[in-house]
């Protein structure tokens, strides 16, 4: 069936607003590693999707899902080895203070649960997030997703702090100055809550500032801000839905790169390589307090044997194929290449990266740093036409977002860089 | 590994409060059709789980998941046949006024989304639910789950109506009198909202009153109540998470049995036979209005090719194996058997059923109808020891909840009934 006919049928069942990538939507039929194939047999290098974390259709994950689905799939109201073994393996990846895990199915559910735990355990309602955050699509989480919500929707229980962007801030913002600036913003939010009679439940932050397009923000910026939140009675929730599971190369979790032990950590997208699997890891006493008060808290599909088999297979592949180290090494290789492109192309204002997570900021003028939003849109679509999939992000939607599956090699990097060089050269 | 060692390890990762069935938890290792097997090789008749809707590990569903997982699993931001075909097949099961579907992963997410649509499209916040409802575990949904929330947690935007229980109401409550009583309760809730200055967004109701233990409530009770809600500016959300997909035998959806076309329908548990799959089906203009206002609404895993393959395989099996008709026929057979048990056992106060959904209310005295809560607990555990899995529910937790997978046969029914007869006889 042609794409237009399929699109018309899609509109008839999903409506016209269900989001699609690219001006010319991509009709995919097959995936393999870092490759995607469309209905006409064209091949695309996937330099965007972090859900197929260890590669599209990794045979080990597929086998784990298929075998367990054929054996047993029930809820955690029965005893089963998988949820216990997976829980043990997952917790071994965290600071020992984080001793409990609760499983659910999506990043939205993980952030919902973390907000419930934070609010019920602190007795406070106030949540601080950044001014361009996205944490999911459920009502309470949308309020803390300033990327999509209006101040009216956020109400009096959510306050945002500005995104402090080292590229756009006045010249010499040292790491120390950045840390001070963030701490001051947090203090301002706390003071504003207090003036409103609202207690602070916590700070909810993506560990890679993904929606802000700041994956390489200096590690030190967070510690002092978190200290202020805790002194005000709140907790720190690290959202690892985008950055977790080794993507940053140097560390398995983004919060480890930032040198802070969170009170709660949420995870999702890459966790089951596409199988709907998510979770909250938290300080033992915090999770136990919430669970004691809510003994009927239950997630029907969360932590089921199939989901946990998928999760364990992802950990197996990450370990056996050395994918975190690959993210570090290939990440550096790509970053070098992007810096070369910045030197060659007037439109590339800034290049940032951490492991296999990159932001390429396009500007109309390198001095004025005017956001080149329409150029970014054109580049994303032109890359797609030339067989490389990326997207864009940021306050001005002018930042190329590059976040490939973890088995991305230097050969794949060369194709990405050469295609981007071509597209930028043709502007 | 012994159950006690596994339980200790489970406590260490999930904490002690993660809910488990039965005084002596069941360590399961395998499932097949209506059968579950524990680590010691014991076999159990599953007369409780509605998630493995077409039977545990149905080979057709397993194959669909395995094949699609090996081929492609991406999000709905790309065009794919599966989400379109599944959407078409699903919508064909509804009144034509319900023309759009939005996919997500869990019943909680479906009810979250339905509440968001209802509230954003009506411009009102007030939600009416029953006094013993459960709709999920996210913050907004917990507020409408009076089974778990306190009046303080529900706040001023959620009001409950009493569960009108024909068994416990004074003698001759005709269907007409019941309909009038429900309509009057709805009106009371609407008036109370209005006195508070809160507009009515909608009525959220499980189509089988599952948590109330009233699967056979007379069909006519709902129409007048819904009319009042609509006149007040609200919508009707039918929660089909427990009852949907043919369970009631006479109809594919619970709301069809009740003769009302909802504005929004939520579905989950049985939809993917255990694969995390859920959705909202709604009136075309309502969903389109919400989607136009929230064009970035997106669910990463919702409607992906694997989930939709699982969903289509469930529909295939339901159709090819005639499972809705089986639910009707075997449901009547079980109901007859339960009525015989009621005649023989003083403790069985009432027996109710609709298709393969049964409620057996245990009482200390048939005249006084005193809830036999502890007896119900004992019966559930004793049934488990004798190899038949059921649970309990209801305002007083004294109602045996029997809700087997759909391929339940008369032979399985005979085992269920004989075992229950034995257990009740041994009280």
Globally, the shape of chain A reads globular
The end-to-end distance of chain A, rounded to whole angstroms, is 34 Å
Average pLDDT reading of chain A: 96
Assign a percent range to the helix content of chain A: 40-55%
How many E-type strands of chain A? 15
Radius of gyration of chain A: 21 Å
> Which CATH C-level class of the largest domain in chain A is it?
Alpha Beta
Range of strand content of chain A = 15-25%
Q: If classified by CATH, what would the architecture of the largest domain in chain A be? A: 3-Layer(aba) Sandwich
The description of the largest β-sheet of chain A is: 7 strands, mixed
Low-confidence stretches of chain A: none
Class from helix and strand fractions of chain A: alpha/beta
Q: Please count the helical segments of chain A.
A: 14
- What spatial order of strands do you see in the largest sheet of chain A? 4-10-9-8-7-5-6
Short structural description:
The structure is a homodimer of 427-residue chains. Chain A is α/β, with parallel strands linked by helices and 427 residues long.
Task: Describe how the helices and strands are arranged.
The structure is a homodimer of 427-residue chains.
Chain A: H1 3-14, E1 28-32, E2 35-38, E3 43-46, H2 59-71, H3 81-91, E4 98-104, H4 107-122, E5 126-130, H5 139-143, H6 151-154, E6 158-161, H7 175-195, E7 200-206, H8 223-231, E8 235-239, H9 254-257, E9 264-267, E10 278-283, H10 284-293, H11 305-320, H12 323-344, E11 348-354, E12 357-362, H13 373-385, E13 388-389, E14 391-393, E15 399-402, H14 410-425
Parallel strand pairs in A: 3-13, 5-6, 5-7, 7-8, 8-9
Antiparallel strand pairs in A: 1-2, 2-3, 4-10, 9-10, 11-12, 12-15, 14-15
Helix pairs in contact in A: 2-11, 3-11, 4-10, 7-8, 12-14
């Amino acid at each position: 069936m042609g794409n237009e006919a399929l699109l018309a049928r899609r509109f008839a069942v999903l409506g016209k607003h269900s989001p699609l990538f690219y001006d010319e939507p991509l009709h995919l039929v097959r995936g393999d590693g870092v490759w995607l194939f469309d209905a006409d047999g064209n091949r695309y290098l996937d330099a965007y999707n972090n859900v197929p974390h260890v590669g599209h259709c990794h045979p080990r994950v597929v086998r784990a899902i298929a075998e367990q689905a054929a054996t047993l799939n029930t809820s955690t109201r029965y005893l089963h080895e998988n949820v216990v073994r997976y829980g043990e393996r997952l917790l071994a990846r965290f600071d020992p203070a984080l001793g409990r895990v609760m499983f659910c199915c999506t990043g939205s559910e993980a952030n919902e649960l973390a907000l419930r735990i934070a609010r019920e355990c602190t007795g406070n309602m106030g949540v601080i997030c950044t001014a361009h955050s996205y944490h999911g699509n459920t009502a309470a989480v949308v309020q803390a997703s300033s990327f999509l919500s209006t101040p009216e929707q956020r109400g009096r229980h959510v306050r945002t702090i500005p995104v402090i962007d080292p590229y756009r801030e006045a010249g010499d913002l040292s790491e120390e100055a950045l840390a001070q600036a963030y701490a001051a913003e947090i203090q301002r939010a706390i003071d504003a809550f207090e003036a409103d009679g609202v207690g602070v439940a916590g700070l909810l932050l993506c560990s890679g500032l993904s929606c802000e397009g700041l994956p390489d923000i200096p590690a030190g910026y967070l510690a002092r801000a978190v200290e202020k939140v805790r002194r005000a009675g709140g907790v720190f929730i690290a959202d690892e839905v985008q950055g977790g599971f080794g993507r940053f190369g140097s560390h398995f979790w983004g919060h480890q790169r930032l040198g802070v032990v969170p009170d709660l950590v949420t995870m999702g997208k890459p966790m089951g390589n596409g199988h709907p699997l998510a979770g909250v890891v938290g300080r033992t006493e915090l999770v136990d307090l919430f669970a004691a008060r809510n003994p009927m808290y239950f997630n029907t599909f969360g932590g089921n044997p199939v989901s946990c088999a998928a999760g364990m297979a992802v950990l197996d592949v990450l370990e056996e194929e050395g994918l975190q180290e690959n993210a570090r090494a290939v990440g550096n290789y790509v970053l070098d290449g992007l810096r070369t492109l910045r030197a060659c192309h007037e439109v590339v204002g800034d290049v940032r990266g951490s492991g296999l997570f990159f932001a390429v900021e396009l500007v109309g003028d390198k001095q004025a740093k005017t956001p080149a939003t329409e150029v970014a849109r054109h580049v994303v679509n032109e890359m797609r036409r030339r067989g490389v999939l990326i997207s864009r992000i940021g306050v001005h939607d002018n930042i190329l977002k590059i976040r490939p599956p973890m088995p991305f090699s230097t050969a794949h990097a060369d194709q990405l860089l050469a295609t981007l060089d071509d597209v930028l050269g043709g502007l």
